[in-house]
Design brief:
Bound molecules: thiamine diphosphate
Shape: elongated
Strand order of the largest sheet: 1-2-6-5-7-8
Strand content: 5-15%
Radius of gyration: 24 Å
Order of helices and strands: HHHHEHHEEEHEHEHEEHHHH
Number of strands: 8
CATH topology of the largest domain: Rossmann fold
Helix content: 40-55%
Length: 305
C-alpha cells in the first residue's frame, strides 16, 4: 500500500516537473503533452506501455543534456511516468491471521495493489504452526489433535466486496489458469487477491511430488480453481468463473496421502475419522457453493449498476 502511494506521489511530482520543463522551453510542448497523456491513461495496453517507455527514454536523454535544476529533478523521477505495477507477497499466517487487518485495509482501499498469498496452510518459516488457513482434520503445531475448525475462506470474504479481483490457483493443477489469473489481476484497475495453493515440507510427503498433490487437491474438490473479475459485471456477465471440474477424486484418499492428516489417523483413529467426515463435508459444501454462485445468471448486473 505504501509502495502504491509512493509510486502515485512520484508520478504526480514527475508530471508537475514535466509541465515546468515544457514551460521553460527545455522540452517541446507537444512531446511533453504526449508523455503526460500516456502517464495518466487508465488502462494502457502492453503496446502503449512499451511506447511510453521509449518516450521516457528519450525524455531522460534530453534531460541529461540540460543543466537546469528542473530537468535534473525530472530526470530523477522520469521512470514513474511509465505505469508501474505493485505486488505484495505473503504467506497464509500473514494473510489469514496476523496481517489480516492490514490486508483487509488494502483490499478496501480501492487502490491498484496486487496481493499474492502463497498458501501453505501453516506458518512455514517458523516450523509449521496452525493458521486460520489450516484445513480441518490436519495436524499442525498448536493443533496436535487435528484442527477442529474448517479453513477460513479468505477468497470468499474478499469476493463479498464485489470490487476486488479474486482468484484461487494451483500451478501444479492448471498452469494456464494460473497465468490467466496473474494477467487479469495485473490488468484490473483496483485491488487484486490471488491465493495460490503452495505445497510445503510440513504437509509430510516428498516435495518432488508437490505438483501431483496440487492436482489431487483440485481433483478432489478441496481446492476449486476460480476467478472473480468485477470487470465482467459491466458486460452483464457473472464475475465468478469456476475453472475446475466437479470432484473426480476422493478427498479422503488425497488427504491420507499426506502425513499431516495421516498422523492423526495412526495416533487417534476415532477422532481422525470424525474430523475427516466433517472435512469431507466442508469440501462438498464449499465446492457446491462456488459452483452455484458461478452458475448464477447475471443478465441484470449491467442494469443495476
Ligand atoms: C507481526 C509478526 N509476527 C510474527 C513474526 C514472526 N514470523 C516470521 S516468519 C513467520 C511465519 C509466517 O508464516 P506465513 O505468513 O504463513 O508465511 P510462510 O512462512 O508460510 O511463507 C512469523 C510468524 C513476524 N515477522 N511479524
Amino acid at each position: 500500500m505504501g509502495m502504491r502511494l509512493a509510486v502515485d506521489k512520484f508520478k504526480g511530482f514527475a508530471i508537475e516537473q514535466l509541465d515546468l520543463a515544457a514551460k521553460n522551453n527545455c522540452l517541446e510542448a507537444a512531446f511533453a503533452d504526449e508523455i503526460k497523456q500516456a502517464a495518466v491513461a487508465n488502462d494502457p495496453s502492453q503496446v502503449e506501455i512499451e511506447k511510453q517507455r521509449q518516450r521516457v527514454a528519450k525524455l531522460k536523454d534530453i534531460c541529461s543534456q540540460k543543466k537546469c535544476p528542473q530537468c535534473e529533478q525530472l530526470l530523477s523521477v522520469a521512470d514513474y511516468l511509465v505505469r508501474k505495477s505493485v505486488w505484495a507477497l505473503g504467506g497464509d499466517g500473514w494473510a489469514y491471521d496476523i496481517g489480516y487487518g492490514g490486508l483487509d485495509h488494502v483490499l478496501a482501499s480501492g487502490k491498484n495493489v496486487n496481493i499474492l498469498v502463497l498458501d501453505t496452510e501453516v506458518y512455514s518459516n517458523t516450523g509449521g504452526q496452525m493458521s486460520k488457513s489450516t484445513p480441518r482434520a490436519a495436524v499442525a503445531q498448536f493443533a496436535a489433535a487435528g484442527k477442529s475448525l474448517a479453513k477460513k475462506d479468505l477468497a470468499m470474504l474478499a469476493m463479498t466486496y464485489g470490487s476486488i479481483y479474486v482468484a484461487k490457483v494451483a500451478l501444479g493443477a492448471n498452469m494456464a489458469q494460473t497465468v490467466k489469473a496473474f494477467v487479469e489481476a495485473e490488468n484490473y484497475n483496483g485491488p487484486s487477491l490471488i491465493i495460490a495453493y503452495s505445497h510445503c515440507i510440513a504437509h509430510g510427503y516428498n516435495l518432488l511430488n508437490g505438483y501431483e498433490h496440487q492436482k489431487q487437491a483440485v481433483a478432489s474438490g478441496y481446492w476449486p480453481l476460480y476467478r472473480f473479475n468485477p470487470d465482467l459485471k459491466a458486460q452483464g456477465q457473472n464475475p465468478l468463473q469456476l475453472d475446475s471440474k466437479a470432484p473426480t477424486a476422493d478427498f479422503t484418499e488425497y488427504a491420507y496421502s499426506e502425513n499431516r492428516y495421516r498422523t492423526l489417523k495412526n495416533a487417534k483413529p476415532q477422532i481422525a475419522a470424525e474430523l475427516m467426515n466433517q472435512a469431507k463435508q466442508d469440501v462438498i459444501e464449499r465446492f457446491n457453493l462456488v459452483q452455484q454462485l458461478a452458475a448464477l445468471q447475471c443478465g441484470q448486473c449491467k442494469k443495476s449498476e
